[in-house]
Design goal:
Helix content: 40-55%
Subcellular location: Cell membrane
Mean pLDDT: 80
Membrane topology: Multi-pass membrane protein
Protein name: DUF421 domain-containing protein
Low-confidence stretches: none
Order of helices and strands: HHHHEEHHEEEEHHEE
InterPro entries: DUF421 (IPR007353), UPF0702_alpha/beta_dom_sf (IPR023090), YetF_N (IPR048454)
Structural class: alpha+beta
Pfam families: DUF421, YetF_N
Strand order of the largest sheet: 2-1-3-4
């Protein structure tokens, strides 16, 4: 291969690397914990596109950038719908899974997810919790664990996101849609006006239990 050929490969490699870093920078997902399944697939495909184009002399750097731009538009569109639609979020990123509820291990769910005892014990240990201390454990969509110890009494569950009620989470705390709407009516807030609503439970320094709704409404437009 002539020196010109190596130089052109280097140019396309540099262009591809800069484009890849720019995409990571602009999407705000620079670490694995921030990435959705779509983001992970996107990174593999981007690598395949860049790798396939580098050694193909018939494809120019401009064409490479155009293909990367089109692919990124598709991925951004998928993530947009996943961010603002509960249905698309469950379809793309899946839902969280409750592994321990009120100190009871949900064995059917644990087996369904293929989680072995050693993996579960390790993840709890990372959170500073042992098996017998776990009161509530939830596997989040990003692969992380939310853990509440028996003595802590702390708990939080998202009930509304982007104006949509999460009925499964309501069942988790033993509440209904009717109860939620009544609570919001007292606060003079509508479900569709909420960015997020979170139910929290805690114990204060006097060992007294308290709970409530934390609301974040969408900003009002004039």
């Amino acid at each position: 291969m002539e020196l010109y050929g190596y130089g052109y490969i280097t140019l396309k490699l540099v262009v591809g690397l800069i484009a890849f870093l720019f995409i990571l920078r602009t999407t705000g997902r620079g670490s694995l914990s921030q990435m959705t399944p779509i983001d992970l697939v996107s990174n593999f495909v981007l690598g395949g596109i860049i790798g396939g184009v580098i050694y193909n002399s018939n494809i120019s750097s401009i064409q490479l950038l155009l293909v990367l731009f089109i692919w990124q538009i598709l991925i951004t569109s998928f993530n947009f719908f996943a961010r603002y639609s509960v249905f698309f979020h469950r379809l793309i990123a899946g839902g969280n899974a409750k592994l321990v509820v009120d100190g009871v291990f949900q064995l059917d769910e644990i087996k369904r997810l293929g989680i072995c005892v050693s993996d579960l014990a390790t993840m709890l240990s990372i959170k500073g919790c042992s098996l017998h201390e776990a009161d509530f454990v939830r596997l989040e969509t990003n692969g992380d664990f939310s853990v509440v110890k028996k003595e802590e009494g702390k708990r939080s569950v998202i009930l509304v996101t982007n104006g949509e009620i999460l009925e499964e989470n309501l069942k988790e705390i033993g509440k209904t849609k009717k109860w939620l709407k009544t609570e919001l009516k007292e606060k003079r807030v509508k479900v569709e006006d909420l960015f997020v609503a979170e139910w929290y439970e805690n114990i204060d320094k006097d060992n007294k239990f308290y709970s409530g709704l934390f609301l974040v409404p969408f900003p009002r437009t004039v």
